Every structure is written in structure tokens, then in C-alpha cells.
Amino acid sequence: MAPAAAKKGLLERLDAGEIIIGDGGFVFALEKRGYVKAGPWTPEAAVEHPEAVRQLHREFLRAGANVMQTFTFYASEDKLENRGNYVAEKISGQKVNEAACDIARQVANEGDALVAGGVSQTPSYLSCKSESEVKAIFRKQLDIFINKDVDFLIAEYFEHVEEAIWAVEVLKESGKPVAASLCIGPEGDLNGVSPGECAVRLAKAGADVVGVNCHFDPMISIETVKLMKEGLEAANVKAYLMTQPLAYHTPDCGKQGFIDLPEFPFALEPRVVTRWDIHRYARDAYNLGVQYIGGCCGFEPYHIRAIAEELAPERGFLPEGSEKHGSWGSGLEMHTKPWVRARARREYWKELHPASGRPYCSSMSKPDAWGVTKGDAALMQQKDATTEAQLNVLFAKKSLKSF
Amino acid sequence: MAPAAAKKGLLERLDAGEIIIGDGGFVFALEKRGYVKAGPWTPEAAVEHPEAVRQLHREFLRAGANVMQTFTFYASEDKLENRGNYVAEKISGQKVNEAACDIARQVANEGDALVAGGVSQTPSYLSCKSESEVKAIFRKQLDIFINKDVDFLIAEYFEHVEEAIWAVEVLKESGKPVAASLCIGPEGDLNGVSPGECAVRLAKAGADVVGVNCHFDPMISIETVKLMKEGLEAANVKAYLMTQPLAYHTPDCGKQGFIDLPEFPFALEPRVVTRWDIHRYARDAYNLGVQYIGGCCGFEPYHIRAIAEELAPERGFLPEGSEKHGSWGSGLEMHTKPWVRARARREYWKELHPASGRPYCSSMSKPDAWGVTKGDAALMQQKDATTEAQLNVLFAKKSLKSF
Amino acid sequence: MAPAAAKKGLLERLDAGEIIIGDGGFVFALEKRGYVKAGPWTPEAAVEHPEAVRQLHREFLRAGANVMQTFTFYASEDKLENRGNYVAEKISGQKVNEAACDIARQVANEGDALVAGGVSQTPSYLSCKSESEVKAIFRKQLDIFINKDVDFLIAEYFEHVEEAIWAVEVLKESGKPVAASLCIGPEGDLNGVSPGECAVRLAKAGADVVGVNCHFDPMISIETVKLMKEGLEAANVKAYLMTQPLAYHTPDCGKQGFIDLPEFPFALEPRVVTRWDIHRYARDAYNLGVQYIGGCCGFEPYHIRAIAEELAPERGFLPEGSEKHGSWGSGLEMHTKPWVRARARREYWKELHPASGRPYCSSMSKPDAWGVTKGDAALMQQKDATTEAQLNVLFAKKSLKSF
Amino acid sequence: MAPAAAKKGLLERLDAGEIIIGDGGFVFALEKRGYVKAGPWTPEAAVEHPEAVRQLHREFLRAGANVMQTFTFYASEDKLENRGNYVAEKISGQKVNEAACDIARQVANEGDALVAGGVSQTPSYLSCKSESEVKAIFRKQLDIFINKDVDFLIAEYFEHVEEAIWAVEVLKESGKPVAASLCIGPEGDLNGVSPGECAVRLAKAGADVVGVNCHFDPMISIETVKLMKEGLEAANVKAYLMTQPLAYHTPDCGKQGFIDLPEFPFALEPRVVTRWDIHRYARDAYNLGVQYIGGCCGFEPYHIRAIAEELAPERGFLPEGSEKHGSWGSGLEMHTKPWVRARARREYWKELHPASGRPYCSSMSKPDAWGVTKGDAALMQQKDATTEAQLNVLFAKKSLKSF
User: Fold this and answer.
1) How far is C355 from chain A (nearest CA, A)?
2) pLDDT at D93 over 70
3) Are A360 and C365 an interchain contact pair (Cβ–Cβ within 8 Å)?
4) How far apart are the CA of A359 and the nearest CA of chain D, in angstroms?
5) Residue B248 DSSP code
């Protein structure tokens, strides 16, 4: 195994026209495995259960990922103490961030992957704190990333381009390459800034790579990045493109994405994309000129492997994980039942429209649309746990009649 | 942690009226993680990637499972050399079985779980080998289980009760408790033996616990076990009951279960059951008198945790994994968005009918029904890989027009 | 046009092995046209708007129907004065029945059709009136049918075979052929009498033709009649078979049929069967040996024509209405758009699975199941209109949460 | 009944702010009744079966329609002789148009309805005939309308605004009021002219009323007319608005509307809108300022009645047909079964999402999109019937695999 020092950096690879395969979603995968709590979605498992986090990193590496993103999603100090969260007090944000860096580096060194330190949107911004206050939050994480010498940085999961720009400006202080992705769809950010304009502003703020992650499905995300590409071209601004979408079908989402769907987060199962959906996503992203192609919530290792398999002709090799997967289902040649062996081909899976097995469920939902955004009292950070009285107000607001 | 020796055995627990929570499905979970090949579905990962297998065991333990089933599904010698499989030659069945036992024991010792050695249906039976030949296959695995001193034995995933009885007869030679589960639905086994009759024959052959696993969804499996219970009562034969169903909705399955569905095995995603479906399953199974409640293909750790959470009032405690899960979604109280906090309650999730997000897909499929069963040439074991000519015959038989 | 006198009677035709094509559903078709009120479903239009009733008869005749059923559904005196209905008092049951006979005869004489006088279940029976009281109700209608010299009689839409037998016994007094059909599914009548047993009892009571109508879709109805056929054969009792099912898909119905579906009666649209569904129904019914093949609620003239077109090879001719319909869509050869001309063939329509165009709707519903049957206070006949207080009790019972 | 002479004209009514309720779709309704052939869709029934046409007129009048549109859809001479159609030769276009006028006038005189003479798009235009040739076609029909003294004129079902303008220019020669509606959606006409621009051009050509009919569902059509309204306002051009949409849900249509759906025209059943969908349509249209509200293909009399019932508060009266319909299902108060009486209320029907009863069907389809438009050889008028060779080319082009 080559030492990390010998590896080509992010920009060298992108400049050379290489495809960068990102990893998948940690919080959702680890929630299902029992190590992350839905609600706070914070990454204390890096300290509490490092072996579980390490295993997931290894699976993504084996699936073909070129990036090990530090498991530092929502690991800003203000988030770790929000609404009764114990992590800031009992563990500390510093320890969580450090542990996440160590694990990512360890696994990255087992293969040809880079370590990316990641920051994401903060409760402080939603609570209308000042630019310098919010930047101070990001800087705290950045100090650790610099100390641990990550290979590059990612500002991701921002609903407001303004906050993302603040993050990029902080991260650029390090001199390392910076990628920035918003969790927006074709309608733009929550302040109504269009995807094209968002991309231009992020690139001008210093982001080397811009794109989207989370909140929307692969096809919608490609549509959004297409708008970003057009915006960049129109403004004659250069940046690499990235997509790290959901692995959930979201044709029925509004502007805020899958958070608003009634199924979020505990009944999204019927929306999970298949590996064949990912083949199409990888091809479409590649054809659009996206060089950094990964996934977010819902992406399991086999989804990342599907990106690597679809783009194997371009990359020239299959990922290690393909030793346990015949491309386009060809492993089924070894199945006992002959009618299953008859499915060992591309045409079969490419054309299949999978049934839901749920005769009492519809194909689409009506998203919640409360029209609540930055600055609203209900979005404010609070240290104390949500009280029963606060909940009852919300329960009354959300009638169960709607489904 | 108490030494294994101090643990109560399976029958002691069942006699005391305790609920035994089984673990989930290894081959499907590890296929998604990149360590099992769909098609052969064999468990060589126990040797090749022990840390991945160990991690999954730990997740199920943490989710509340009382049983660590050795990862020996399809680990019979004849299966490991079927249709071009390299495992028998390159690794050996003995090593796979031994490694699986060691991992299961290690993790079981980290908690209050028992180790169960498992055997499953063989290509030899489908190829019409004699009773003594088939029994010799089982005995090879049993020798290792005895040597590794597993706590009890499971004969599972049998489509023909006759073969299951042969397995039970072999396993009983050990003197250890034996559980037996068929992969059948309410229509009975592939020879047309009814569930009630199957249960009686298995119990008479020596099985202490009888039931079903795999091939059908939780609700259908409960229906089948209900027929087993009635058969046992009518025959005045005593046995404990077990269910380890799929975590896939299969209302459209025929007699052979989910193998026949066009979505098997690579497009089952929209059928995955939610944790709330599992709550209902656990309650219904308990109400029916099933004491051994677990899962099979598709069951992830969070599904097993849902069994443990639903039955926490009866068992008196929550599983360790619930430290990262508010029962019935109460962890959402900590979510940033108020309309998601409004989902932090049982009534919400219990009533929700999740949408598929797939407007071009139907709710049900027409299963393949080739009418091929034991003894058919197409089901015969063969050491060589399936040839292209053999595949073309199958491809021609299976027109793609059907969907 | 041959005079009616010269026509072969029902039994002559059946004895000769001829297929009898019934007509479609009057109350639902005329409700949509504006002449029948959903709720009471009574046939006063025969007096109030004879031209509308006559036109519908003509359309069914043109579509190939061999029977003009008098529009006397629910035309029993007790029904016409139930729950505030004005017909008994303002028009009289006698006039409604007479007008219906006259119209049916007029149109029957325009072609090769027979007139069938029909009676159906009574509020008196549901209100636990005595056998002689209920029979007196039927006899009132029969007197008119005899006076108007209909060709044969039909007792249809009975949920309890007991009441149907009473009807058959009364109708047989006329000496005319009698057909009897229950609105039951494979689970049998509301007293739990199996379809096979129902058929035997009806035939023994004197019915020349037995079968089912209404309440279930064509495929389920064929299943029920199959059970009737098997019952008759087992009992060595002879009767001709008939089916007049709904033109609505009802895979989700319980024992009481489509009345219990939440969509009944004003949102059944997405369930309407296509003409191609009817082709399959006609063929399956014919293959089972059903000789009297028609339709009930939802059957429009084009559905009846589809029966006649499917069975044209057996009958030797197409119906008059086929001059405006190319079999299996061949009329599309004349369409302007080439891709629509490409649909002018059997293979196209036979394989098509039509989409609902309703992305927020499921494929199946959960039927209401109040467990209310004969004798329950809520089913009692009452002359007065339902009061607001009575309604409020029902509204409170039926929570809107269920969908 | 007041003589026609005493009736207020179209413009007087519109100027006075009255709502004009249009009638429903004749070709689809009469196809189902057996009098129109799908494919040619021509209106020779006006001559061949006048009583059937008259009856449908009466039903729409009774349902509340203020307009009796002459049944002259596709009654241009060139269409009546297209692709083997016998009408031009055996009957003549003149007779068809005259008979249609007579029937419409007869029924209009039975109530407060106006007679509208209608022309629609021509094969000549699609075959690239000159403006004067196409106009000559329209003028032939207009001569008859003038001779029969219709009350106003409608140019409807045009896919190209250019042809519609030619039609309007011809119709204006009569001095009578002219309404013009295109069968377009929000994407505009087939030459890419936006709805707003189309509306402006039509109004400038002399149309007093502009809007859309056919091809799209009510909600999409309202969206299109909204764009028309905005275009008119922006251009400061005045015209009244009209909508006569399909009664089929078409969320999955492309630019050419429902013709492209695989279900057109023989499997549209699951898409039929309910009366409650129409309530919403009528309210939304009214709120947008549309004064002429009717329907097209799929609209049955009960759909038109639903417009009249929804707008009864504004119009001050219910239609005659409501004597057989309790608003919002209140007639169900008279139903025998109590759980059906519990549905006798607005809240019930308003919230219901009807199931399709079709578990093997999806909610949406992929439209055909052949990219064929005006001038393409495959669209050319031809007197001879489509030959088998021509069909085979089309069949080969349209693989059946697509569904």
C-alpha cells in the first residue's frame, strides 16, 4: 500500500480528468446499525463506537470510494449541545472531531483514498447569529482538521448559500482544496438564490468544487447541478462539479427536499434506490461532466460500488468489492433456481420496474410545507430538550388527518 | 460479562416463558456491504473478512438478539463447490464453518447471547441424492459445531420437510437442542405437505422448536406459523414456535416465495419493511404464542431492535442499541425542523402509509412460476460454472415482455 | 323484425347450447346520466323519463344483449317508500313496474331479445319480516310481470340465499323460466352458506339458471360461480349458470363486496374495467361453462359489446354495435397520429397495464367492516327520512382518519 | 319554455358576468354507447342515430349546460373521407352538419341553452395545404351554421394556433360571436407558441372567448388558461376565458397531451375523474376568472352537473338533474347500509383518495413521443384505408417492450 504522502491530491486528480468517487451516507447507515440517533443525527459514535465507524469506512473504500469523509457531520459545538444533546458536555466536540479524523486517516491509508474534513450547516446560523459568530464555529473544526492534516475540506449540507460562503471562506484559510455542496434542488436555496447563482458565488468565494448533496434524489440532483454548470459557464467562472445525492426517490419533494416528506426519516424504505438506479445516475452525472460523484443519506456500500462498476470502463478498473458482485447481476449464473439464473443480464435489470409490495400505499406523498425558515422561533437553537408543552403545540399543528 | 457457561440454555429460557430474539439476515446484509456474492450466497466472508462478519454480529447483539447464529448458511461442502464456486477448493468448507463458529462465540460472549450452529438445504437433495448421502453432508457440519461446542442447533431454510427431517435427525445426534424452520408459506412445502403436518413431523423427528424462516413477509409467516400451531395442537404434539421472516413485503408471492418475484434479488428495495411494520410483527407473533422471534433476509439491526423495543414491556428492558433510538420516533424531539419534531409520536408512525416515490411502478408483481422442482435437470448440482449455452436456454425461456 | 312470439325462449336457447348475453347495469349508468338517485337507487325514471331508459335499453340491444331486463331493480313497494322515498306515494310501485315492462318489451321487439322481469332483495327481509310478508312483496311485482307477459323472470341481488329462495318460489308460480343470482363472493352469503350450497338450494327451489350478479368484479365472480358449479355437480343437481358481475375491479373487497369499499358509490371511477378486461371475462366465463353472461353496475354498452365481440367466433356473428368498433382496436388504423395507429392490434391492448394517473392514490383500499347484518337496527326499513341525529351517530362512528 | 329568440346571447351573458356552463364530450361518450368509431372519431351518428345524439344533448342540458354544441367534431369534408372513411361518400358532410344543427337546436329549445356551431382541426392543415384551401374547408361548415342560424361559433381542438386563427377569421365572417380553444398545455402549441401568445393572437384575430379544450386534465388546463390570462393582461388585450378539459387525469402527459399516453383511447378508465375532482375544477376555474366552464372527452352528464352544483351559490340555482343527486353525496342518507349513510357528507368525499383496484398497474405511464408533427409523411391525409404494409411499419416502430 502506498503511503498517503505519495498519493495524488484532489486537484491533481481532477485536473487530470479523473473521476473521484465519494463515499456514502454515514448518519443514515449508522442509524440503521444502531450507532446514531435520528433527531440529533450527531457523530459521537466516532468516540463511542470507533470500530463501527471504521467498518463503514472500510466498506465504502472497498466499494470504490476515493474519499474518506471524516464522520463530523453536525459536529459543530453548537449542534452538539442543541435541544438536550449530551455530547458537547460529556464528550466534547474536539474529541469527536479528532476521533473522526483518526479513523478516516487509518482507513484511507489502507487504499487509494483521500481524507476530507467536513463541516455542515449550524444551528447558530438558523438562530441568526452574526457572521463572525458562525465563522468561529467553523474555525473550531478547521483547527482540528489542520492539526490532523486532512487532504482537503468539504463544506456540505447548506440550505442557504450565504452560510456556505462563510464556511468556504473559513476553510480556505487553510490553503487546502475546498469543495462546497448545498442541499438544494432546482428551485435554489431557501433564500431563493438560483442554483446557477449559488455555484458562481461559491466558486468566487474560493470553492474549487461546487455541487449538491442530500435532500433530493439522484435525478433531481443532476438537474440541479446542470443548472449550476450553466450558471458557471454563463458567468465564465471555473469550478469542478460534484453530486452526492440521496439514495431515496423524491419526485414529490418541494423546495426543502426529503425532510418535508411525511416518511422522513423512519419510513423512507420504499423509496430506496436500487443499484440499477445508481448505474443510470453515475452515467448521467459523468455525461454532464460531474467529476466528483458520490452519495449521501441512504447510500450504502453497494450503491457506491454501482458507481464504480458503471464507470469502470472510464476508470479502467473495478473496485475491490466487485469480487463479490457480478456486474449487472451476472453472479446469478451461480444461483440454484433456473429462473433466477435467467436474470443474470443487463437487459433484465435495466428494464425492470420494481413493485412496492405495498398495495395500500400510494406512489407519492404530499410534503409538509410549514413555510418556516431561518429566524423563525421554531428553528432556534436551544440547549434544553424540547419540552412536552413545545411538542404539544407542534402535534396540534400537524393534524394526522393528512394521510 | 458473564461467561457463556453461566448462561441459561435455549430450553431453559423457553421453558421459563422467555422471549428469544433471533438475529437478522447475514447474506443479504453482507451482500450490500460487499462481502457476499448474490447467486452463490455462500459465507466465505467468515474466513476472508472476519471483521465484517464480527461487526454485523455485534450490531445484532446490540439490537437485542439473544442468538448469534453461525454464519454457515449454504456452507455445506456440496454447495461450496456448486456451479463454479471456488470456496470448497480454495478455502474448504471446514475452515468456513470453523471461522463462523469462532466469530459467533466471540461476540456471544460479549453479551447474553447463545451460539446456534446452522445447516440449510443442500444441492444434493435437489439432485435426488440418497438420504444417507444428504445426511453425510449435514454430519460434516455438525462435527464442527460439536467440536466448537455451540449452544444449540438450527436446521433452517428447507423447502421440503423431508430434507428438514433428515437434518433434524442428524442434528439430534449431538444431544443439543434443535430448532427447525422451513421456508414455506401457508400453502405448505414444495411437495404439498401442509404447514400443520410439517410442524408435526418436525417435532416428532426431534425438533424442540419449529417454525418458518425466509421466503415470505412477516404477516404471511405469522399466518403460516398459526397453521403450524393448529396442526401441533390437533395432533397433541408439543414444540416451541419460531418465526424468522423476510423484511420484504411479499403479498404477491406464490408458493415458492420471494425467489420467484421478478425483483429478486437486486430490486427488492421498495419492499423493505419499516421498523413500524416490525413492531406489528413482533406484537402479533407474541400474541400468537411464538417465543422465538427473529428475522431473515432483509432484516437489518434496526429491525431486530424494533422487536426488542416492542416487546420491552414483556421482557422488562430495552436493548443496548436503544440508547441511540427513541421508542416510536421520540428521538425526533431533538430535530431542528419543527414539522419533523411533530412526528415524534407513536400515532404518527403507526398510521402512516409510506409512499414509494416510484410513479411508474406498480404495487405488485407477477411472480415467475416455472413449475420446476426437486429432480428437475435445471436444479441439478454441477461443479462447472453455468455455461453461456445453458444461460441462453434460460434467457430464451424468460421473455422480457412480462414486465 | 321478427315478432316476439316467433322468438325462441330462454330454455330453448340454453338447451341448444346458445350463449345468452345479458345487459348491463341500469342504476349506475342512469345515475351518471342524471335519472337515478344514488342512495335509494330506485327506478322511477321508467315513469319520469322513459326516453332515457329506452335509449339505454337500445344501446344494450345494439351492443349484443339478448335480454332486456325490466328496469325494476328495487321496485318493490317497501323499498319505494323507505327512508323518505317519494315514489310509492307520488307514483306507485305498480306504475313504475308497468312502465318498465312496456319499455323493455318495446325495445326487445326491435331485435332478438327476450324480456326478463326482475325482483331483488327487500328492506322487509332485512327488517325480519315473515316469509309470507316478504313473499307478498314479490308477488305484487310478479302480478305485473304476468300481466305484461314477460318472457322469463330473474331474482337477483340477494345477499341471503334464504330470501332468494322465497323469491324463486314466488316467481315459479308463474310457470315461466326463472333465473336466480346472488350478490355474493367466494365466501358465500351473509349467513355463511357457501356458494356451492347456495346454488344447490336455488336449483332445488326451482331456479333454471343460477349464478351471481353485482358486488364483485368479473374475475372474483367467475371464481364464485366455479364454486357453484362444483356444488351442483357434487350434489348431482342440474342448473344453467349465469354471471352478471360489476365492471369495477374489487380485489380488496371483503365478504359484502363493493358496498364496503370507501369509494362506493361516488369515487369508483379508477376501478372501471376496460373492454379488454371484459374480453378476458367473457372467455373465462365461457370456458367455465357459463351460458348466461352479462353485467351489472358499471357495465356500459361498450362492455356488453366486448362480450359479444369476444364470443363472436362461437356465436357466429358480431353485434350491430360493432359497426362502430374495430375488434381489438383495429379502428385505430384510421387515426391521424401514426403512433396511435400502431396500437391497432390485439397484442397491444392485451398486454397493457393501464396507469391510474393518480400518483397520490393507492392501488387498494381497506373496506369498511361494520359487521352489521340482517336484523340490526341500523338496517331496519323506516318510512321517514334519515334524521340528522341518526346521521350524526353514523358520522361519529365513521372516523375520517381511516384514509 | 321561452322561444330561442327570447334568449340572451353569449356576449350578453358574459358581459353580465354570468357563468356559461359548456356541455361534455360527445365522441367519447357516444363511442361507449356504440355510435362513434374510435379512430376516425367522426360524427355521422347525427344522421345515422339521431335519437342517441339527441338523448346525450338532453342529458347535458338537464345537467346544467348552457350550450348545445353541434355534434360536428371532425365533420370537415376532408376528415370524412380520410383513411377509408365512408361518410363523405355515403352520407356527405353537408347532411352530417345539418342534422347536427337540427338536433342541437331542438334540445336547446327545451331549455335555456344556446346552440354553438363547431369546427375543429383539419387533415388538410396537417398535410400542409394552403391557407385558402384550409379556410375553404371551414367555410363549407360555416355556410351550414349560418343557414341553420346557430347562436355562436366555436373553433376548438387546434394543436397549432396558426390554423385556429384561420378558423377564427373564417367564422368571424358570419358576424356571430366566436369562441376559440386550443388543445394545448402549459408548453404551448406544437410550433412552440406559448399559451399567452396564442391567446393574444386568437383575440386579435377576432375571438371573443379564448381558452383550451381536450388533451389535458382539468388542473393542467387551468394552469394553461392562467398563462393565457397573464398573456392577455400583459398585452392589454381583452377576451373572455374558457376551459373544456378532459375528464381524465393526465399528470404524465407530454406536450401533445393524452393522445400520446399508452392508454389512449381504450384503457383510459382508471384515469376518469370523479365528480369531486370536478367540484375542485369548477371552483378553481371560477376563481381564476374563467366564465365559460365545460368539458371535453370523458365528461359525462354527471361531471357537467358537478360544475353546476359547485357553482350553484354563484348562479343561484341547481340544475334540473340535481333532483336526482344530493349535493356532496347527501342522497346517501337514503342508503340501506349504515356505513354508506355515513358517507353522506362533503368532508368524506373531499378527502378521499380513491384506490385503483389495480395492484399490477402503476400510477403513471411513459407517453409515446415520436416527435412527428405537421408535414410529416405519417400525418398526411390519404383517402385510402391504411394498408397492412403501412401498419407493419408502425408496429415494428412501436416495440411492445415499452410497458
Assistant:
1) 12
2) yes
3) yes
4) 6
5) B
Q: Do B334 and A385 touch (CB under 8 A)?
A: yes
Its CATH architecture, for the domain C10-397, is Alpha-Beta Barrel (3.20)
Distance CA C264, CA A243 (A): 47
Interface contact A349-B266, CB threshold 8 A: yes
Distance from the A255 Cα atom to the nearest Cα atom in chain C, whole angstroms: 19
* Cα–Cα distance for residue pair D363/C11, rounded to 1 Å: 46
Residues 6+ apart with CB under 8 A from B252: A355, A357, B261, B364, B365, B366, B367, D359
Strand stretches in A227-327, DSSP E: 240-244, 292-293
**D374 and C CB contact within 8 Å:** no
Cis bond before residue B265 (omega within 30° of 0): yes
* Contacting subunits of D (3+ beta carbon pairs below 8 A): A, B, C
B186-196 pLDDT tens trace? 999 999 999 99
* Vertex A11 angle, CA A140 and A15, to 5°: 160
Assess C380–D contact: CB distance below 8 Å, yes or no: no
Separation between Cα atoms, residue C19 and residue D302, nearest integer Å: 34
For residue C155, the cross-strand partners are: C119, C180
B138-161: pLDDT as tens digits = 999 999 999 999 999 999 999 999
Q: How many other CB atoms sit within 10 Å of the CB of residue C41? A: 23
- Interface check B356 vs D, CB under 8 A: no
Q: Which residue of B has its CA nearest to A84?
A: B334
Dump pLDDT digits (tens) for C52-96.
999 999 999 999 999 999 999 999 988 898 878 899 999 999 999
Q: What is the C-alpha to C-alpha distance for residues C337 and D28, in angstroms, rounded to an integer?
A: 17
Judged on CB neighbours under 10 Å (0-12, 13-18, 19+), A315 is middle
User: What's the rounded Cα separation, in Å, for the pair C301 and C56?
Assistant: 8
Nearest to D401 among B359, B362, B400 (CB): B400
- Beta-carbon separation of B339 and A394 below 8 A: yes
pLDDT for residue B1: 40
The reply to whether residue B366 touches residue D359, judged by beta carbons under 8 angstroms, is no
Please state the domain extents for chain D.
Answer: 10-397
Q: Which residues contact A235 (CB under 8 A, 6 or more apart)?
A: A196, A200
Any chains having at least 3 CB pairs less than 8 A from chain B are A, C, D
Give the model's pLDDT for residue B399. Answer: 59
With b meaning 16 or more CB within 10 Å and e meaning fewer, what string describes B94-105? bebbbbbbbbbb
- The pLDDT tens digits of the residues spanning D37-76 come to 999 999 999 999 999 999 999 999 999 999 999 999 999 9
A152-158, strands of its sheet edge to edge: A20-21, A292-293, A240-244, A209-213, A178-182, A152-158, A114-120, A67-69
The verdict on a CB contact (< 8 Å) between D252 and C37 is: no
Supply the pLDDT for residue D400: 52
Alpha-carbon gap: D162 to the closest alpha carbon of chain A (Å): 34
Strand-by-strand arrangement of the B20-21 sheet: B20-21, B292-293, B240-244, B209-213, B178-182, B152-158, B114-120, B67-69
Grid cell 347532411 in the structure block, residue:
D95
Kindly state the cell numbers that stand for A400: 394526522
Mean pLDDT of A289-303: 98
Q: Do D362 and B365 touch (CB under 8 A)?
A: no
Closest CA to C298 of C246, C255, C256: C246
Pick from D34, D301, D376: CB nearest C324 = D34
Q: Kindly identify which residue of chain C lies nearest to residue A363, measuring between CA atoms.
A: C359
Of C317, C278, C319, C276, the residue nearest C299 (C-alpha)? C278
Phi, psi of D17 (to 5 degrees): 80, 10
**Does any CB of chain A come closer than 8 Å to the CB of residue C356?**
no
Burial class (CB in 10 A: 0-12, 13-18, 19+), B280: middle
pLDDT in tens, D14-42: 999 999 999 999 999 999 999 999 999 99
The pTM of this model reads 0.93
